[in-house]
Specification:
This protein folds into two domains: about 60 residues, Alpha-Beta Plaits, CATH 3.30.70.20; about 190 residues, NADH Oxidase, CATH 3.40.109. With about 290 residues, it is of the alpha+beta class. It has a four-stranded antiparallel beta sheet with strand order 5-6-8-7. It has a two-stranded antiparallel ribbon with strand order 1-4. Helices cover about 40% and strands about 15% of the residues. Helix 5 packs across helix 7.
Length: about 290
């Protein structure tokens, strides 16, 4: 990794030393500031040191000052932020209207501002802005969930599902999904599309299975996209039904072009809301523990 500091322009303010989360910058005996060579491989490439440097004296391998920009004074106070969030809701009813590609591109642009856990480019997006393709996938997804009831009646399959899914997802399957599966809720022939809710667009967040922190990063990306969609008049909902069906069905991976080594972490349906609300909903959080 070829990180370095331009000592001709460096002001020796030491802000980069303080700001570096990996602690790989130090003051040398001759009072110059430089990278600690034996630690340089642990650089997160977060660009924080570059952003704090007034003289643009720090060069990080793979990072560019073209991506460092001046910030405007913040215009969103708490009340405005609260009001914005109070207008966001999970949208499951959409107008029969396609989304302009330009709008989705605008939403995706917000991802350039997301933080990351360990590796900046660990998450990939697949955007399906075509209802016909989504409808090709629905019978396969529906069949996957129709079969789940019989799998859970088989002691060996039940054990394997619990082992592979983990206790949290297993409880979600048995306590949340299974009652609805038994009612035919996800059977598109009986109940219509209760999986993607007739949304015109679907966004898949996926990553190589071995990539560091990719699960947390995918949910960070998802949150930014969801809020950005709301800011330009689109509605969205996180859909947990889609990823398991894709991850366990090779046909769906091929249909959506998901690399075989990748896993879909989460997904978002997207469209123009069919209904508008004049009232918000508060959900009190009672289980909050303070330690002071």
């Amino acid at each position: 990794m070829n990180n370095n500091i331009n000592h001709k322009t460096c002001k020796k303010c030491h802000l980069c030393i303080s700001i570096c989360p990996a602690k790989i910058i130090e003051e040398k005996a001759d009072k110059t500031v430089d990278f600690i060579q034996k630690k340089i491989h642990t650089c997160l490439k977060c660009s924080q040191c570059m952003a704090i440097c007034e003289t643009q004296s720090i060069l990080i391998d793979g990072c560019s000052y073209e991506n460092i920009f001046n910030l405007n004074e913040s215009v969103v106070d708490y009340e405005k932020f609260y009001d914005f969030l109070s207008h966001r809701r999970s949208v499951r009813n959409f107008k029969n209207k396609n989304i302009e590609k330009e709008k989705i591109e605008k939403i995706i642009e917000i991802l350039s501002l997301t933080p990351f856990g360990a590796k900046e480019q660990s998450v990939e997006l697949t955007i399906i802005n075509n209802r016909d393709i989504i409808e090709k996938a629905l019978p396969i997804m529906s069949d996957f969930y129709n079969k789940m009831e019989s799998w859970l009646r088989n002691p060996f399959m039940k054990f394997m599902i619990k082992k592979n899914a983990g206790i949290e997802k297993y409880h979600t399957i048995t306590k949340h999904l299974l009652p609805r599966i038994k009612l035919g809720h996800y059977d598109i022939k009986k109940s219509g599309d209760n999986i993607t809710r007739n949304a015109p667009a679907l966004i898949l967040f996926h990553s190589n299975k071995l990539a560091e922190e990719h699960t947390n990063d995918a949910y960070i990306w998802l949150t930014y996209v969801m809020l950005a969609a709301n800011s330009i008049g689109l509605g969205s909902t996180i859909i947990g039904l889609v990823p398991p069906a894709i991850n366990k069905t090779k046909e769906l991976k091929q249909l959506f072009g998901i690399p075989l080594d990748n896993e879909v972490v989460t997904s978002l349906i997207l469209g123009y809301p069919k209904y508008s609300f004049k009232k918000g909903i508060k959900r009190p959080k009672t289980k909050i523990n303070w330690i002071e």
